[in-house]
Amino acid sequence: MLEIITGKKNTGRYKEIQDSNLVGHVWELWREGRASEIVDPFFNESVVDEALRCLQIGLLSVQEHATDRPTMSTVVLMLGNDSALPSPKQPAFIVTNYHSGTKESSFSEGVHSINVVTCTMLEAR
């Protein structure tokens, strides 16, 4: 849903937010109250509120704990009505370059869980 609303791929990098992936970029803009900046410019201005609702549902769907994520039937209900939605929590996985260790030039790249339980290193085939 985030890819559809933004017109961007999740596999890309967004230097605006410390080399973040799409989920991380949308999350940062959402937290800052600037989520409308990421909405695909091909959307008509009259549907921006609906697009922001879809971004919120997308962020709710990538939360850390599965019990916090809506089921597909709940997502369908959320999309079909205008009821208030809960605020999303920080997504579980955000691709970033992050500082590790004490040297400023020491960076590791990969996928990191916010609870530091999972670490997957990205490698080319």
UniProtKB/TrEMBL annotation:
Domain of life per record: Eukaryota
Alphabetized Pfam families for the sequence: DUF3403 (PF11883)
Single GO MF annotation: protein serine/threonine kinase activity
Residue ranges occupied by any S-locus receptor kinase C-terminal domain in the UniProt entry: 81-125
Protein name, as recorded: S-locus receptor kinase C-terminal domain-containing protein
Species whose genome carries this gene: Ficus carica (Common fig)
Phylogenetic classification of the source organism: Eukaryota, Viridiplantae, Streptophyta, Embryophyta, Tracheophyta
